[in-house]
Sequence to fold (492 residues):
Amino acid sequence: MRLARLDIPSLTLYGGSIMPTNFRDAMSPSRVAPLVGGITQKKGKLMNRKQIVTTLSLGLIGMILLMSAGCDRFDLGTIDNNRDELDTVDPNLVRANTTFGFKLLTALRKTDQHNNTLLSPYSLSVALAMARNGAAGETERAIVSALQLQALAPGSINANYVYLQRALQAPDSKVTLEIANALWAADDIEFDPGFLDRNDQFLDTEIATLDFTEPTNVDTINDSINTNTNGAIPSVVEAIDPQTIACLISGIYFKGDWQEEFDTSLTRDEPFFLADGSITQISMMRRTDGYPYYADDQFQAVSLPYGDGQMGMYIFLPNPDTDLNTFLDLLSVENWEGWMSQFLPMDVSLVMPKFKLEYSVELKEALEQLAMGIAFDEDRADFSRMTASSVPVFISYLTHTAVVEVNEEGTEAATGTYVFFDGPQPQAADATIPPIPFIVDRPFFFAIRDNQTGTVLFMGVVMDPVRLKKTPYIPEPPLPASDFVPDLDVPF
Fold:
């Protein structure tokens, strides 16, 4: 009896203006016509093994298409935009998502404190929740514990993810948020109908078969990624293990335009002071406006709203005498909720870098630190609710790939309507009071948050905004700070 593997690449992409503004446009027949060759069956049933498996894995301003050997596409389905669902979102799920993100970030930073870090706790949570639908016993309990879902009744977990997804996908003229989930199943394995049904109903997961023994599927996947990102992401998958029986994908696409763009004529190169004492040059955007703002004795924080203010980017900047790792140690759901409740509208002179990051990581080691190691153990993992046979199944790898780009247009930036504040709308700042300087010229933490539900969609640590990809850490001798004097006389 052969062991079977469960591969879960969670691919969250945050890209730039080269991507379409609506990822469903990328699924148009004109884009996939050269690969058409099969017939799609009803959702929830396995498709012909020769069909194309097309899914989107998207993040802030970006897109990726994954596909198997030439065949037909499947409809990603739609979820009604319905803000009434907000009343049914369990706050325990939102808190669990936030806690999971912070714990995972901490685990990742333990082994790499020098590189930028970027992840989508929401996307990863959904991918693992999909795997939970096939898990049993101690393995299921370990996944629930890692995702911090203990406060939810086991029978309510799937429904709560559905409610949250519907609440997140509310209309906003300046924000596009699309979510897609897919399960690729090996055509030679009989799957438990209950597992397929749970994931069919769970966030409209699409199900299709794939021949994992065909090595050329790697080229097909990567060629598609390269083509549909205009070369921004030329490759993700290096090889497919022929013993793979399933591949779960959870994708999210977010494009947000600032309520008020930064003036590009004010963008100029300025110094950015790295943690090792060296200095680099980066294009700095600048704007003075009313922003939700909070500060304590260790950091400053500002929120840059997108669109109507439902979504926002939160930037946390440690004080010059506070190490970024010291701030990261403060990240807990209790502190986070306390900070969120104390943001107030202030007149802020904001200077922040334009940046683009690419991040890819294998999460086995980090999830083992969250006590989920059993799911990766081929001798102990219990995914008996996944297949209809006695084939042992375990997670062989779980990868997370993310790209983020921030520029003058958005996170693709930045007066707020402050829809998440109680009480009267903020008044214009007193012209006699100078704006608060907020100069992001050193490592910082950021998050993209849905202000209505409190869901953190993305979080990241920027150590070096110039460094595009994760690289081995090679210390450089510090340059004299006197060589770089920021020009603060430039008008905002």
